[in-house]
Design brief:
357 residues, alpha/beta, eight-stranded parallel beta sheet, three-stranded antiparallel beta sheet, 11 strands
């Protein structure tokens, strides 16, 4: 077993390898988490896109399969209620697509699917007592965070800038996830909405390491042992990996998502807000090209995605991902098929070899 020189995350979490599975809504549940845990890393379950009952069942399945810590991930956004004018503007922007596919704009489903950390989720955490609770988009209100910490859970959250990292440390985070601009899925930004100023992983990590006293976990663009070794050399105590597992046997990525990943390149992902209302990186599809990738017309998160649901359903039935999230990072071309345990072990072993551990 490699003799990792920085053991802060390993000792904090009681894991063997400094590799954390990124919590990926739509692509990862207990099966993927179990596989990464079996390789000595930290498994994760994304809880903001599933019900409390579903999350509880996934944690129970995880506990039945492995004796290992688990990370439950939640969103900490503050919901915004749009006015009638904003709603009308977004529907008008999508009207050509409704006409093309014969959809009645007056009979659209209610938006949702991305709930913030609330009383019900907090009660679930208190009942399940996960070893790690992580957040995206900052932190929940103080009283809820205090309850999480009271049960002994380690708390992480994502920072996309040094200022966000400092903010998180000041409010009691035990470690900060340095989410570089390369990362797939939703940006974790909460102090700034300026995507043009977001640093990449290899620039962000050493600056956060220098600015903070708590461990830094590198995320974004890391999909093999070379990326992991580089991040650790820059001072990260561990890495969080997502895109490398999107094609794994245990991933729950739908077929059109898998098809998009197989055609991924270095230049065909982009940051967009038209799919959910918040900036997120994914493989470029039709709605991103024609409406975005970033649009002032998009409804605030998570409401922008509601009117797209019928378009997504029709397109997906035809084998197209033109109207749905195809989340992936800039390293998506490096996603591998096969058992996730083997993928995780290969990343760790090659990083250790390069670091001569």
């Amino acid at each position: 077993m490699p003799a990792w020189t920085d053991r802060r995350i390993l000792d904090l979490l009681s894991i063997d390898q400094p590799l954390l599975l990124a919590p990926m809504a739509g692509s990862g549940l207990s099966a993927l988490a179990i596989a990464v845990a079996q390789a000595g890393g930290l498994g994760a379950i994304p809880c903001s896109s599933i019900s409390v009952e579903k999350a509880t069942a996934e944690v129970e399945a995880y506990r039945d399969a492995v004796t290992a810590p688990i990370n439950l991930n939640f969103f900490a956004h503050r919901p915004i209620t749009p006015d009638a004018e904003a709603m009308a503007r977004w529907l008008a922007r999508l009207a050509p697509y409704f006409d093309e596919f014969g959809i009645d704009a007056g009979d659209l489903p209610a938006a949702g699917g991305r709930a913030p950390f609330d009383e019900a989720m907090c009660a679930m955490v208190e009942a399940l007592r996960p070893e790690v609770v992580s957040f995206h988009f900052g932190l929940p209100e103080e009283r809820l965070l205090a309850r999480v910490k009271a049960i002994g859970s380690v708390v992480f959250s994502s920072a996309t800038t040094v200022a966000e990292g400092r903010w998180l440390e000041q409010r009691g985070c035990d470690a900060v996830i340095a989410q570089g601009y390369e990362a797939g899925g939703h940006r974790g930004n909460f102090l700034t909405d300026d995507m043009s100023a977001q640093p990449g992983t290899m620039a962000l990590v050493p600056q956060l390491v220098d600015a903070l006293t708590i461990p830094v976990i590198a995320a974004g663009g890391i999909a093999d042992g070379r990326g992991m070794a580089a991040a650790l050399c820059l001072g990260a105590s561990a890495v969080q990996v997502g895109s490398a597992f999107l094609l794994a046997d245990e991933a729950t990525s739908v077929d059109v998502h898998r098809q998009a990943l197989r055609t991924a390149r270095d230049d065909n992902t982009a940051i967009t807000n038209v799919l959910t209302g918040r900036p997120a990186r994914g493989v470029i599809n039709r709605i991103m090209r024609e409406v975005g990738p970033l649009s002032d017309d998009a409804l605030p998160f998570p409401l922008a995605g509601g009117p797209l649901a019928p378009l997504r359903k029709i397109a997906e039935a035809c084998g197209s991902g033109d109207f749905q999230p195809l989340w992936a990072g800039q390293s998506a071309i490096m996603a591998r098929e096969g058992p996730a345990t083997a993928i995780a072990s290969d990343i760790v072993e090659n990083a250790a070899r390069l670091l001569r551990l």
